[in-house]
Design brief:
This protein is an alpha/beta fold. It folds into 3 domains: about 220 residues, L-fuculose-1-phosphate Aldolase (3-Layer(aba) Sandwich); about 160 residues, L-fuculose-1-phosphate Aldolase (3-Layer(aba) Sandwich); about 210 residues, Rossmann fold. It has 25 helices and 19 strands. The strands form 3 sheets. It has an 8-stranded mixed sheet with strand order 14-15-13-12-16-17-18-19, with helices on both faces. Strands 3-2-1-4-7-6-5 form a 7-stranded mixed sheet, with helices on both faces. Strands 8-11-10-9 form a 4-stranded mixed sheet. A hairpin with a 3-residue loop joins strand 10 and strand 11. The protein is elongated and about 100 Å long. The termini are far apart.
C-alpha cells in the first residue's frame, strides 16, 4: 500500500486544517482495503472563536455514516472538545445520553450526528486522528493466534486493545489504558477484531502512519505465502435460478430486492471451496459490516426455496438466543449468498445498496481464505455480533436511508426508450424507484441511460438473438424482471389499402406486432419469478377507433391488443398482470414527424394546433401523461387488474 499524498494537491489546503482534514480523509476513502462504504472516521481539533469572542477548542469529527470517499467540510460534526473529554471521565454513559450530550455540544445543529467514536477521537492528544478497518490488520487479528501475531508484527510500536463495543465503552477502555502512556512511543492503536487508529499533529503524518501500519500487515501476509490460498474458478450460468433466488429472498425480506451476481473467478473459487459451509458462517470480517451483511450469508445449493427458508429459520433462532426480550427481530432474509459453481450474490433494496454488500462480501471472502491459511479464521463470538447488529446507534444509520418509493427495487424493461413515450416511461419508472433498462435501435440510448441502475442497450427488437441477449443482460445484472413496457413502434405514412405496398405493410407487422410477441416470449420465464410482475402494452386509440389511411398501423396495433388480451388470460395463473394503454395524439414522440402531423391534420380539415387538441377535454396529451398511467399499471393501483384497456387520449367521441 502506497501513500497517495500529493504535495501539489495538498498545498492549497495547508492553511486550512479542516480542508486538509477533508483531503487526507478522502485519500483514506480511495483505498477500499482501508475503509468500505461509510466505514472508518477521521477528525481534527481546532481553536475557534465563538459568538461571544471566547476561544473554544472544537473537534471536527466525521459524521456518522458519511462516506470518506465523498467527504466534504459539511460532512464533519463540530463538537466542543471539553465536553467530549469530560464524557470520557464518566464511569457510565448509555447510548441515549451519549447521543444527547454529543448533539447538545455541537456548534452547528444542522451538521450530521457525530461519529460514535467521537469521544475516543477527543481523548487522543493529537490534532489529527484517523481510524480505519484495514483488511490486512483485521484479517490477522481474526485468528486463533490473532493477538500474538499482531505483537509479533508491531512489537511495541502500537497499543493493542482487546475487542470491546465501539462508542463509549471503547473510549472508556482506551482512556483507562492510556492514562500513563507515553504517546510519543506509539505509532497507533490496534483494536483487535476491529481496526486501527493513527494520530499526529499534522495531517500527512497521521495519514501515512495508517498506510505504514496497514503495509506492515500486508507484508507479513505476503511473507507467509497466504495469498496463494485464494481460490479461483470459472462460473456456470443459470439465470433462471438466479431469478428464483431473488424472488425467494424478496419474499423473506417482505420487500422487492435487487440481486447482484458476482461471477468473478475469485467469487466462484470461494464458492467452490469444500469447506465453504464452515468457514463463511463463522461471522463477518469486522462487526462494522454486520448491519449491511447480517452475521452470515446463505449457502445456496440444490433446493433454493429450502435453503432460503432454512436461513430465515436459523436467523430467528439466532435472535431468540441473544435477545433480552425487549428487542424486535429484524427481517430474516439474507443480504448475501454463496452459490457453488456460480459465484456470490448480494441483495439490496437498490443497486447501490446491493453493491455495497457485494464490496464487503468480496473483501470478506478474501480475508477468510487468508485467515484460514494463516492458522484459522476466527471472528468474534455470536454474542458480540448480535450486540452490534441490534445496537441502537448502528440501526440509526440504516433507518435514515430507507426509501418509501412505490416501485423501489423493481426491475423494468422498456422498449423504444430513446424518445417519446418509451423514454418518458423509463424516466417515470426510475423516479418511482425502479431499476430501468431501456432498449432502442437508436445507438444514442447508451448515452441517455448510462448509470449503474439505469442502463441503455442498442437493440433491434426484430432480431431474436439481440432480444434474448438483452433480456439475459437484465437478469444477469439485476437478478430478474418485474415490469415489461413493450412500446417500440413505427407509424407508416398514410396510405389507403389499395395503395399499400407490401414492404410498408410487412414492416409495420414485424415491428408493431411480431417483435412484441418475440420480446414477451423471451421475458415470460423471468416474469414468472418477478415480484408482482406487470406487462404493459402501448397500443393505440386506433384499435377501438381506427381511421382511414392507417391500416398497416391500426391492424398491427389491433393484433397487439389481442396478443395482450390472450397473454392476460394465459399469465394470470402466474400472477402476471397484463394491461394495455391506448394513447392518442401524443405528439412529442418519434412517430409524429412534422410531415405525419401535417398530413393527419389536413386529413381532418384542421390546423396542426387544432389537431393536437381535438379531444373532448380540449387538452394536449403528452408522453409524461402516458408514463403516469404506465406507472399506475405497474403499481398498487392496478394490483388486482389484468386485461384492462385504458385510453389516455383526452376523451374521444368515437372511442366512448
Amino acid at each position: 500500500m502506497i501513500s497517495l499524498w500529493n504535495d501539489n494537491e495538498a498545498k492549497a489546503f495547508l492553511n486550512d486544517p479542516l480542508q486538509l482534514r477533508v483531503y487526507t480523509s478522502r485519500l483514506l476513502g480511495l483505498e477500499p482495503e482501508l475503509v468500505l462504504h461509510g466505514g472508518g472516521n477521521t477528525s481534527v481539533k481546532v481553536k475557534k472563536e465563538n459568538t461571544f469572542g471566547d476561544i473554544e477548542e472544537i473537534l471536527y469529527v466525521k459524521g456518522s455514516g458519511v462516506d470518506l470517499t465523498e467527504l466534504q467540510p459539511a460532512g464533519f460534526a463540530p463538537v466542543k472538545l471539553e465536553v467530549l473529554e469530560r464524557m470520557a471521565s464518566q464511569e457510565k454513559l448509555d447510548d441515549a445520553d451519549l447521543l444527547r450530550l454529543q448533539r447538545t455540544s455541537m456548534l452547528d445543529p444542522d451538521s450530521p450526528n457525530p461519529s460514535i467514536e467521537a469521544v475516543l477521537h477527543a481523548i487522543i492528544p493529537f490534532k489529527y486522528v484517523d481510524h480505519t478497518h484495514a483488511d490486512s490488520v483485521v484479517t490477522i487479528s481474526n485468528n486463533e493466534r490473532g493477538e500474538k501475531l499482531i505483537r509479533e508484527i508491531y512489537k511495541d510500536r502500537v497499543l493493542i486493545v482487546p475487542y470491546v463495543m465501539p462508542g463509549f465503552i471503547l473510549a472508556k477502555k482506551v482512556y483507562e489504558l492510556t492514562r500513563n502512556l507515553d504517546w510519543s512511543k506509539v505509532e497507533g492503536i490496534i483494536l483487535l477484531n476491529h481496526g486501527v487508529f493513527t494520530f499526529a499533529d499534522d495531517a500527512r503524518t497521521s495519514y501515512e502512519k495508517m498506510i505504514h501500519i496497514a503495509s506492515l500487515a500486508d507484508d507479513y501476509l505476503k511473507k507467509q505465502g497466504v495469498f496463494d490460498s485464494v481460490a479461483k474458478a470459472e462460473p456456470v450460468e443459470d439465470l433462471l435460478s438466479l431469478a428464483r433466488i431473488r424472488h425467494q429472498v424478496s419474499v423473506a425480506k417482505g420487500d422487492t430486492m435487487i440481486a447482484r451476481l458476482d461471477q468473478s473467478p475469485a467469487a466462484c473459487g470461494f464458492a467452490n471451496l469444500s469447506d465453504v459451509d464452515s468457514i463463511v458462517t463463522r461471522g463477518p470480517m469486522t462487526l462494522d459490516h454486520v448491519i449491511r451483511t447480517k452475521p452470515v450469508p446463505v449457502i445456496l445449493k440444490n433446493d433454493i426455496e429450502k435453503d432460503i427458508a432454512d436461513y430465515s429459520l436459523k436467523y430467528k433462532k439466532y435472535f431468540d438466543r441473544n435477545t433480552d426480550g425487549n428487542l424486535t427481530c429484524l427481517d430474516t432474509a439474507p443480504r448475501w449468498g454463496v452459490w457453488p459453481e456460480h459465484g456470490s450474490i448480494s441483495f439490496g433494496r437498490s443497486v447501490k445498496e446491493a453493491d455495497v454488500v457485494a464490496d464487503i462480501a468480496g473483501h470478506t471472502m478474501r480475508a477468510i481464505q487468508l485467515g484460514e491459511a494463516l492458522g484459522g479464521w476466527k471472528p468474534l463470538p455470536e454474542k458480540d455480533i448480535f450486540h452490534m447488529e441490534y445496537w441502537t446507534l448502528q440501526q440509526a444509520k440504516l433507518k435514515k436511508k430507507e426509501s418509501s418509493l412505490e416501485l423501489q427495487g423493481k426491475i423494468a424493461l422498456i422498449t423504444g426508450a430513446a424518445s417519446g413515450i418509451g423514454r418518458a416511461c423509463a424516466e417515470a419508472l426510475y423516479e418511482q424507484g425502479s431499476v430501468v433498462v431501456g432498449l432502442d435501435i437508436n445507438p444514442e440510448i447508451t448515452g441517455i441511460f448510462n448509470q449503474q441502475d439505469r442502463a441503455g442497450l442498442t437493440c433491434d427488437i426484430t432480431d431474436d438473438k439481440a432480444v434474448q441477449e438483452a433480456v439475459e443482460f437484465i437478469v444477469r445484472s439485476f437478478g430478474g424482471l418485474d415490469i415489461l413496457v413493450t412500446n417500440a413502434g413505427i407509424f407508416p405514412a398514410s396510405r389507403s389499402i389499395e395503395e399499400m405496398d407490401d414492404e410498408s405493410w410487412n414492416r409495420s407487422m414485424e415491428i408493431n406486432l411480431t417483435s412484441h410477441q418475440r420480446l414477451l416470449k423471451a421475458c415470460i420465464p423471468y416474469l414468472k419469478q418477478g415480484i408482482d410482475p406487470a406487462v404493459i402494452f402501448i397500443a393505440s386509440k386506433n384499435v377501438p377507433a381506427p381511421g382511414p389511411g392507417a391500416s398497416a398501423y391500426s391492424v398491427a396495433k389491433a393484433g397487439l391488443t389481442q396478443l395482450a388480451r390472450i397473454a392476460a388470460m394465459e399469465l394470470a395463473v402466474f400472477g402476471i398482470r397484463v394491461n394495455i394503454v391506448h394513447p392518442d395524439a401524443v405528439f412529442d414522440t418519434g412517430i409524429w414527424t412534422q410531415e405525419v402531423l401535417e398530413g393527419r391534420a389536413k386529413h381532418y380539415g384542421l390546423t396542426v394546433a387544432e389537431y393536437k387538441t381535438k379531444n373532448l377535454l380540449k387538452t394536449e396529451v403528452t408522453s409524461k401523461d402516458v408514463a403516469a398511467m404506465v406507472c399506475a399499471m405497474a403499481g398498487r393501483a392496478f394490483a388486482k387488474t389484468t386485461g384492462a384497456q385504458v385510453p389516455v387520449d383526452g376523451g374521444n367521441e368515437r372511442v366512448i
